[in-house]
Amino acid sequence: MVLASLLVIAVGYLLGSIPVGYLLVRLFLKQDVRSVGSGNIGATNVLRSGGTGLGAATFLLDMLKGSFAVYLGGLIGVMLVPTAIERNMQALAALSAVLGHIFPVWLSFKGGKGVATGFGVFLVAAPYAALAAIAVFTVVLLITRYVSLASILGAASFPFFAWMLVTGDRPPFYIAVQFAVSLLIIAKHHQNIRRLLAGTESRFGSSSSRNKGTA
Known about the structure:
Elements: H1 2-16, H2 20-28, H3 43-48, H4 52-80, H5 86-102, H6 115-125, H7 127-144, H8 147-165, H9 172-187, H10 190-198
């Protein structure tokens, strides 16, 4: 059981740590995205670097790597330990993938804020709740044009949607990871929260958003 868990952690972390935004900007724009705006490797900062299509691709691929990490982690876990609870193995892979994205070994443990990857892991672990959280993100973004606020509220809403929409067994570890991932994403937005409270946060699409980190 311990070896299986360690393998799930390793697979989840390594998949999550793939620095998609950094690689796309380096490959197509010949730039280091960490030198732009917030210095973040996430989709919003990739978009800020001037790569509209690259920003969308980064968001999509960051989601997909999270989803694949959870799917593969759950599969490996139950294959190696048939008595293992699949949702616990998925949760372990989910937490590892998000930690990998936020703290990638390839970039001196300085990565993104985990929004797209977080939604990706939840799409497999709790799909209906993830879709509901993405809907919250979208509505808040359309109304306020604050990517950071949309990300924070989307992440904060997920555990509550999961509690209402997930059916079947809900092991304590599975529930705990939902809150842990949401809190990680919110914590990574601590600078944005300060700017939101101070009224200095940039809105998506504004000229000043090219120079400040919003997600």
